[in-house]
Write a structure and sequence with these properties.
The complex is a heterodimer of chains A (158) and B (119). Chain A contains 3 helices and 11 strands. Chain A is α/β, with parallel strands linked by helices and 158 residues long. In chain A, strands 1, 2, 3, 4, 5, 6, 7, 8, 9, 10 and 11 form an 11-stranded parallel beta sheet that branches. Chain B is mainly β and 119 residues long. Chain B has one domain (6-105). The chains are: A alpha/beta (158), B mainly beta (119).
């Protein structure tokens, strides 16, 4: 009588390719590392990324936003435009724009950022180094000579 | 927070070992090994995967270099390019799939005119 609507049930993967298509055509704008996923190695991306699982290694994610969810466990140095932490991170965090630690965040490592927001209850052991200008540009003046890369210099208006 | 399968997007590049017990969709580049439970794996049309893969069932529409073991069904779409050994309880191919030097083991449920080339 109170039968569950069928839509709630997970569609079984059948042997017919067409029937399996919905899995394939699912499009997302955000990459997701799910809670059961464990990855050891190098990860790089140029799109928003949410980590709910476990990552060990390096994360190079320069232009977009990175979120470490509540269940996320990261043992890696993180480079991203902006970084939001709700889970555990062991490693240095480089947020070119900003770094945000939620109250559930547990971070061991150093934070390098332009702006920071830390919620009451967040656990953080390490140092914070903030640049007066966005980190990307501060780094550029020290490490990179824009004159060597005209395309980049033009982009930055240098 | 988004739920559902893990998703490796088009711009993502992963090098290393990955294990999980949930569905996974790969549209990016992966180099290493993938160990999955009895869940589903989808390798998108533009994905490039160089890995030994152990999964439940898989749909391959992109490029795979490596051995694929599926405990259930492996479906190879017409856009797929596969190089390696495919082992599954049930294998299913779409017409046009590019299978270069592929070794197949399992029950072949359907094979149309997949382009099978052996050196």
């Amino acid at each position: 009588m109170f039968k569950k609507p069928q839509a709630e049930e997970k569609p079984p993967l059948t042997t017919h390719p067409a029937a399996a298509d919905p899995v394939m055509v699912r499009t997302r704008s955000v990459s997701v590392i799910g809670p059961t996923l464990v990855f050891k190695g190098e990860l790089s991306a140029d799109e928003d990324l949410v980590i709910q699982g476990t990552i060990e290694g390096t994360i190079a994610h320069h232009k977009k936003n990175l979120t470490v969810g509540k269940e996320g466990r990261v043992k890696a140095d993180i480079h991203a435009a902006s970084v939001s932490i709700e889970g555990h991170v062991e490693g240095d965090i480089h947020g070119d724009d900003f770094v945000e630690l939620a109250k559930s965040a547990v971070v061991t490592g150093n934070i390098f950022c332009g702006r920071i927001k830390m919620a009451d209850g967040a656990r953080f052991n390490g140092s914070i180094e903030m640049s007066s200008q966005p980190v990307s540009q501060a780094k550029l003046t020290v490490a990179d000579d824009p004159a060597r890369d005209p395309a980049r210099a033009h982009k930055l208006g240098a | 927070m988004p739920t559902g399968p893990s998703y490796i997007g088009t711009t993502m590049v992963l090098k290393g070992d990955l294990s999980l017990t949930e569905d996974l969709i790969i549209d990016g580049c992966f180099d290493g090994s993938i160990t999955q439970g009895n869940q589903r794996l989808a390798i998108g049309e533009h994905a490039k995967v160089r890995a030994d893969i152990r999964t439940g069932s898989a749909i391959i529409a992109g490029r795979v270099d490596g051995n694929v073991f599926g405990s259930s069904t492996v479906i190879v779409k017409r856009t797929a390019r596969v190089h390696g050994a495919l082992t599954a309880e049930r294998l299913c191919f779409e017409s046009g799939a590019d299978l270069e030097d592929v070794v197949l083991s399992g029950n072949i449920a359907r094979i149309d005119s997949a382009d099978m080339r052996h050196k």
